[in-house]
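Quick one:
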Amino acid sequence: MKDLGRLITAMVTPFDEDGSVDYRQAIRLALALLNSGSDGLVIVGTTGESPTLFRDEELKLFTDIKSAVGEKGTIIAGTGSNSTAEAVEATKAAEQTGVDACLLVVPYYNKPTQDNLYWHFKAIAESTNLPCILYNVPSRTAISLTADTVIRLSNVDNIVGIKEASGNLSEISKVIENTGSDFTVWSGNDTDTLPILALGGYGVISVASHIVGRQIREMIYSYIDGEIKKAADIHRHLMPLINALFIIANPMPVKYALNHIGFKVGNPRPPLFEPDETVASVIRESLKEYKIDLVN
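Output:
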């Protein structure tokens, strides 16, 4: 399987003033992120506002960004859904755009059992030749993939890894211990990147890398190179910014931060809005303390 990268940015979706997708700016942002430390990008994930995008918008984003990026980085399409049939359809359509992999979020709202989750993800994986990455984010989905279910799913040929945003290091450790070397665990929380690396994880699918991608990359490779203190120093240094970027629901803070530093991505689509002044001031003050890595 193609190496999808250690540092992958879950990219925001830029919008025009009228709320339509700004495809030109999306391409510009994708290339800037790859020039700022990222190995790859998730397009139309949670950070990309997948709940408020239409299918034709998603497919055009996949097509345009993959065409512009080429081999400069990997493009991972967010194609998960709380409907198995819809996720299968979306994944098949994404495959036709030339993306490198797909990201499949745990179904939200309808609360399937663990056995239901196994068959859901297996059905999607069997519908495509794309590598499939599971996405466990119980803070948004109300349920969590257990380690046992992940281990079971790791035996499906093209289920190649998981983005783990549960924060449950015990379960994550169990997954790493009981899956093969061809199964990859990425942190799904910027706060957990170093702890998950210490457990044997591979990297991170990050939000903060919009702003400090080179610094996150340096942290990852410092750890890999055995420079543990340096990695820990970088991790601690970045924590206040990471906390500011999650002070309210993602992607509202990171979009505000990007706009503030001059990389215009527009406001989120309703029901999300630009942060109020109290929240915005926290983000602005935090940004003052950091070197901005994004190439504008």
